[in-house]
Specification:
- The protein is globular and about 50 Å long.
- It folds into two domains: 117 residues, Aminotransferase class 4, branched-chain amino acid transferase, N-terminal domain (D-amino Acid Aminotransferase, Chain A, domain 1, 2-Layer Sandwich), CATH 3.30.470; 154 residues, D-amino Acid Aminotransferase, subunit A, domain 2 (D-amino Acid Aminotransferase, Chain A, domain 2, Alpha-Beta Barrel), CATH 3.20.10.10.
- It has 302 residues and is an alpha+beta fold.
- Helix content is 25%, strand content 28%.
Length: 302
């Protein structure tokens, strides 16, 4: 028989199939939840969660932006994540904390409504099946939402409708993923990933002004690159720079570091995984699995 898997819901471990909410739960109807994506990796010392404190702090910031009361502290949530991974006996996995209005009613007003926090931990492999060979992208006709419309620094469920429609459009046209421009026409990010350009041995990535989500994997790669003496520029990026890049890749918790070998039918660089992409991918893997002691403080062992 398959091993029973648990979720953490409002302070208790519950068998996954018994964790239920009403069909008219507000966050299911209106996308009013907030969430995080976190990975745990298998290391020589057992399972380790990658930068859980940074993820949980962003989770709580998202809740504050949306005025969603969360009754658990950073310490309590981090502890729950580590205990859940251990309870499920997972060596590597994807962890999904989720805060939502667990209140069945019709209407937009959330004043005084019950909020719940759930955490799930599941087996999870490569987000892109052909990640090692690189993926093909198109620039989406859909623009990235900006902070005058919705708060882009909140990792909120409803924000991702923008990502879903762009990603679906790209895949329906034969691409693996979309790249979104911001409302002004500068490169923003992928539907669920930040983006990096390599040109003239420099690493270039859109800045916060391009309405990106400030990814924790993005931050990790910037720190790793700087530790190796690689120049990093955070700035506005023009669309045509995607076509003239030596290398191009996505970063994200799910995507990790995924090379992009084609954009809008144009080959990126040599049309294969480039040397700096390989260096950074290996370095990120070393940090995440505990092989590189320089970044050992990023790991919380289960």
């Amino acid at each position: 028989m398959p091993k029973t898997q648990y979720v953490w819901l409002d302070g208790n471990f519950i068998e996954s199939e018994k964790a239920m909410v009403p069909i008219l739960t507000h966050s299911l109807q209106y996308g009013s939840g907030i969430f995080e994506g976190i990975r745990a990796y298998s290391t020589g010392k057992g399972a380790a969660v990658f930068r859980p404190g940074d993820h949980v702090r962003r989770f709580l910031r998202s809740a504050r932006i949306y005025s969603m009361p969360v009754s658990y502290s950073e310490k309590e949530l981090t502890s729950a994540i580590l205990r859940l991974v251990k309870k499920n006996g997972l060596k590597s996995c994807y962890v999904r904390p989720f805060a939502f209005y667990n209140d069945a009613h019709i209407g937009l007003d959330v004043t005084g409504k019950k909020t719940s926090v759930a955490i799930a931990a599941v087996d999870f492999g490569s987000y892109f099946g052909n990640k090692d060979k690189g993926i093909k992208c198109i620039v989406s006709s859909w623009r990235r939402i900006d902070s005058q419309i919705l708060p882009v620094q909140a990792k909120a469920s409803g924000n991702y409708l923008n990502s879903i429609i762009a990603s679906h459009d790209a895949r329906s046209k034969g691409a693996d993923e979309a790249i979104l421009l911001d409302i002004r026409g500068f490169v923003a990010e992928g539907p669920g990933e930040n983006i990096f350009i390599v040109r003239d041995n420099k690493l270039i990535t859109p800045s916060e002004s391009s309405d990106i989500l400030l990814g924790i994997t993005r931050d990790s790669l910037i720190k790793i690159a700087e530790s190796r003496g690689i120049t990093v520029e955070e700035r506005e990026v023009h669309r045509e720079e995607l076509y003239t890049a030596d290398e191009l890749f996505f970063s994200g918790t799910a995507a990790e570091l995924t090379p992009i070998i084609e954009v809008d039918g144009r080959r990126v660089g040599a049309g294969k995984v480039g040397p700096m992409t390989k260096i950074l991918s290996d370095a990120y893997s070393g940090a995440a699995t505990g092989a590189d002691s320089e970044f050992s403080d990023w790991l919380a062992y289960v």
